[in-house]
Structure formats: structure tokens, C-alpha cells
User: Fold this.
Amino acid sequence: MNLIGLILINNSSLNIKVKFGVLFLFCLISCLSFGYPFKIMHVITLFLIMLTVSSFSSFLYKLLIAIIFIISSFYLPVALSFGPVDFNTLLSVKYSNVSEGIMLIKTIPGFYFSLPLVTLAMTIFIFDIKVDKLNFRPIIITYLFISLVSTPVRLYINEGRVKVFSTGIPVVRFVTDVLENYRQVDEETALMQQSLTTPDVWAPERTLTNYQNYIIIIGESVRSDYLNAYGFPIGNTPFMSSAPGVLFTHYISAASSTQTSLKNSLSLRRGLYVELNNNIITLANKAGFTTFWYSNQGSLGPHDTSVSSFAKRANLFNFMQKGKSSDGVGSGDFDLLGGVASVMKKNKPAKLIVLHLMGSHPLACDRTKGKYQEFSQSKEISCYIQSIRETDELLSRVVELAKESGQSWSMMYFADHGLAFKGPDTDNARLQHGDKLKQNYTVPMFMTSSDSKRREVNSYPRSAINFLSLFAQWTGIKDKLIGTGCNMLADVPCDNQDRVIQFTQEQVLFSSLGEDTPAH
Assistant:
């Protein structure tokens, strides 16, 4: 209060001082509302901006207060759950429909949505503040000028970039980050569409197929430490825990969100660029495979995601969901099996059959219709464990269908990404998207076949960024664009298996990430 009294003139009553104290608290909360690292200087700077604006114009002050309240209240619950806005956030917004938006909102604890009521009360209380005179106004304005231009100047000197609004103040940074990331998403979409309309350049040299049916099952949002096959105490994977085949114990996804992960797993990467036209479907087509893709995730229609576009390169494809993205409302994963049973029996030399599941996508209780066999921590965690049990049952049924086909077969199962554990050991315990911890990327990978006789373990790290090499070795396809320096299927060490892609699209070392609360 003494600082406030020193700065203000003719605004020294107790009631006014209380209002200015609440204004400072309002500035503090607004700076915490966007998930950025907290800096007290940002709070002080925003507070001085509010006082200065009020000393010039009551209307502009009220307008600024209203804008800050609306923006910060809108994003505060999201920031508390997922952190600051980034490329992945805007990518999800672009490729999500209303149902998936509702699913996202349902993963946020309800009491987070009550917090904006606090800032609303503050906004009403401080809305009529009027600063008659401001002590040291020239000094304050000089400080604000230096504070606001120092970061843009530093960026220009160090990086040659002109970013006038890079002030560091969270509300300003949020707006600029939204605009910048949306621009990047638009550029990425344009590049994707261009790549997907470009013919592939595969030239397979030879194809030595060991099986007639090659089956890929892509799971959704599965952390390996929640599978009994990987040591989880609840027996939710009776098939994977006992079936003959190979369990990869250190398999990591390319990224921690579906589109980014599968785009970087299933297509060719050369340097910094991912060539979406050169993907596993176009490769298999060129190698003489008959290709099928059955998906319980959505198709956009004229503006496809990269993954749905891969699917549409198949000789036959079917989307159970017709929405803008995967909302998981309607058809279940088991509904995919009807089409699979018939194509397995087709008399073709080699077939590639891909099943893309909704699996364990949050909210897991939407996947299991709120049902579970065993309670663990919270209803949502219990449903998540149950969703894995149901995926395991689906794998078992696919194997039965493969056996009934009378043809040789090999099946591969992996998940697109892991999740982050929130609120452990509480009634609100849940799993949601994240990119800062190892468990956001540790996923199951299991392979079995018609000639598997015993259980084996591949204990060395494998990164899905190198999935094409593994896929080519599995299917017997050889192409000069695909690296063959290491046997990805064998239990031997391979180089360059430690990279993952975060929400910002930056590649980091998986080994440098921290540990999440383990499954228990």
C-alpha cells in the first residue's frame, strides 16, 4: 500500500488504496492465466500500464480491463491443465469438431472453471478506478517504454527478427503466440496439401514377403506402464501378456499427439522435412501389396489431415467416424472387425491391413461407456485401464480372424502416443495430453505372427521416428530412401533412437525428459 500511496496523488483514501491493491492482484492473476513462467516484473509492468492508462483515459482503462479479463478468463482453465498455447494447441483446434471440443473440456477439472468468477468479482470491483494524478509519471512512462521495447530490440540484435509485440507480458504474449502459431498451422496445412498431391517417389528394389496378411493396429493414447504386459499390477492384457511374439519394452512414439506423431512415424523424413506423399501406404502399393485402411477416427473430407490422407491412398479405406476429427461417439473399435474378416480371406499375394483405433483417447469413460471391471484411484483411471483391456481383447480377436483366414499373417500393435498423469491418488485422477515427460511418449509395441512359437523381448530403445526402417524390414520391402543400417526387429542396439517431437515441433532427446508419476 505504501508503494501505491507513493505513486498516486489525490487517490489516498483507504477505499481507493484497497481498490489499487485488488488491481495489483488482478494483474498478478492475469499473468498466471496463460501458463507461461511467472515473473514478478511482468506483474509490476502490467500494473503500471493500468495506472498510466487510467491517468490518461478512464474509457481506455475500462476497455483494457475488460479485454484482459475476457482473454485471461477464457484461457485460465486450459492453462492450468495443459500449459501455454503452442503449435499443437492450434493444430488441435483446427482439426477438431464440437464433440472433440466437449471431450477436451470434460478433461479439465470442474473447479478450474470457477476461478474466472474470482477475476470477474475483481474486475467489477476495480472497473471504476480513476487515477487523477500520477507521481513520477515521466519516469514511469520511460520505464514502461524501456520495458516494452527491450525484448523486441534484443530479438532484432541477436536473431535479426522484428517482433514489435514481443513484450513478455503474458496477455500480449498469448495473443501474439496465437497469431504466430495459427500462421504456422496454416503454412503446415498448405505444405501438407501440396505434399499429398505430389506423386510418391518410391522405387522398391525387391520385395521378400514372409506372410500374406500384414496387419498394423494403431492404438490411441496408451502409456505402456498401464499395461499388465509391461508390469502394471492389474491384469488388463491377458492376450499380450501371454501370446507368443515380440514385446518391445523401450518403444517411444515420435510425438505426444496423434497427428504429429503418426505423420512423423508413417512417412519419409529427409532432413527437416517430412514427405507425406512418401508414406507406408504408397510404399506398400508400389511394392505390390493390396492395401486396406479401417479407421475409427475421422476424415475431414476436402481438407484431410495427414493421417486420413494416408488412409485414402489405400486400395480400400473406410472411416467409421465421418466427423472433422476423432470424436469417438458412435461406432466402437470392435465395429472395424467386420470389414477386416472379409479382406483377410482375399486371395492376394500380400496384403497390408491397417486398423486405426479410438482406443484409450481421453475421456476413457466415453470409450468404455463408463464401465470398468476394477476400480483404481478414480472413475476415469478405472475406465482407462478398462479401455486397454478392451484393446487387448480386440487384438485377440484380430488374431483369431487371421487364423480363420487360412493364410499366413503377422500383426503389429503400437500406440500413437502416451499421456500425462494429473491429480494422482485423488478422485479427480486422470490422464491427459502432455509433452514434457517420458511417459508422454512411452507406448506399447507388440508383434506376433502365424509362425511365432515363443515370447521374446526387444529390450533396446526404438523411436517411432525411425518406424519406416522397421516397417520395411518387417514387410521385406527394400527402397534406397529407407535406412537399413540396423536391424530394428532384432534385440540389438541401434543408433538415433532417442529423439521425440514436442508440441512446439522442436525435437528433443527423450533421455533428457523428466519422469511422470508412474502407473500404480
Q: What stands out?
A: The longest strand covers residues 213-219. The two ends are 49 Å apart (CA to CA). Residues 3-185 form one domain. Residues 5 and 264 are 58 Å apart (CA to CA).
